[in-house]
Amino acid sequence: MNFRSKKYSLMALTVPFEEIRSNVNNLNLTLIQGALDSVTYVLQNSELKEPTLWSEKNSEYFTSNIEIASGRDNFLIYLKKKSDLGNYNLNDIIKLTEFVRNYYDRLKV
């Protein structure tokens, strides 16, 4: 996998998310924000060859991984509905990553 040459699958980015999720109690906010900043940077500099196919193929993954902690998480409710319908794009995932980064302490269970 080589992020500089853009020869990678976006599924490779699930690794940092899984690491954060499984080590949530062992990481401080600075480490989490740094990891999510890196993911955001890679996503912002990525292009999908077949965006519609990618959305359809990954809809279940994103829908099942968006957890809504409270009714005040309108962005997450909105994004989960879009994802469930397969009507989302890479920009939505970038916004999700930024949302988690910015509100991580509040979202942490």
Please explain how this structure is put together.
- It contains six helices and no strands.
- With 109 residues, the protein is an all-alpha fold.
- The termini are far apart.
Give the SSE map.
Blueprint: H1 14-22, H2 29-44, H3 51-65, H4 74-84, H5 90-102, H6 104-107
Helix pairs in contact: 2-5, 3-4
Could you estimate the helical fraction of the residues in percent? 55-70%
Q: Ranges with pLDDT <50 over ≥5 residues?
A: none
Shape: globular
Distance between the termini: 32 Å
Q: Which structural class do you get from the secondary structure elements?
A: mainly alpha
Average pLDDT works out at 81
- Estimate what percentage of residues fall within beta strands: under 5%
Largest sheet: none
Rg calc = 14 Å
Helix run count: 6
Key terms:
single chain, 109 residues, mainly alpha, 6 helices
Short summary:
The protein is an all-alpha fold. It has helices spanning 14-22, 29-44, 51-65, 74-84, 90-102, 104-107. The chain is globular.
